[in-house]
Amino acid sequence: MTRSTEHDTRPDEGSAASPGRFDLLLIVMVCAYLLSALTNGRWIDALRVLLFTVVALLALRGSLAPKRTARLIVIAVLAGTAIMLTLSFTTETGRGIASIWAGLVLLFAVVVIVRRVLSVRTVTAQNIYGAVSAYLMIGVAFAAFFAAIDHLSGGHFFAQGHPDSTQTFQYFSFTTLTTLGYGDFTAAGNFGRALAELEAVTGQIFLVTLVAFLVTRFRAPGEQKR
Fold this sequence. Notes:
The chain has 226 residues and is mostly helical. The chain has one domain (21-218): Orthogonal Bundle (Helix Hairpins). It contains eight helices and no strands. The longest helix is centred in the middle third of the chain and has 29 residues, at 125-153. The protein is globular and about 50 Å long.
């Protein structure tokens, strides 16, 4: 006689990701990307923090963490977001701290997504959406870290006196992540340069390992029934 397992709500580590989980996440992430690329201002920074929180919570919904741990993380994320929203409307230091928080929240979501994606036996389109979402999160997270350096250093992040804004940080971040290296924007300080190098390496490792792995294991819906 088998025992009931109704109380165990953790997803099966060998099962595919639930339909709709990662495509919704990708939509929210694309919206956050466009918001950062097209607009600027303190209200926009606050809205971005809220969107990043939504991204983290959506990623956590599909995680393999126990329910109690997940609840504690949700409480911590929501409490931290409330504090960071307040700081984003204060001094440059407050904006810098809020930017660091936004980047850390996104990197947390990346870890959760990658762990969930790698836990499945059969890769579907949903898992590909998750990987693309995580890639976008890496770029936006590093953009937040670059903005934090700018706010906390008291000087300009870019060399040659180029203007610092949400758009330029994101532009610089994604040209670095994809190793395009246009050269029109370069970091002025050693810490900014080191962070840019780390992002470039991270982007290449991500593409060469995770995305390539998922593509080779991808199965179309018709093939999954065989």
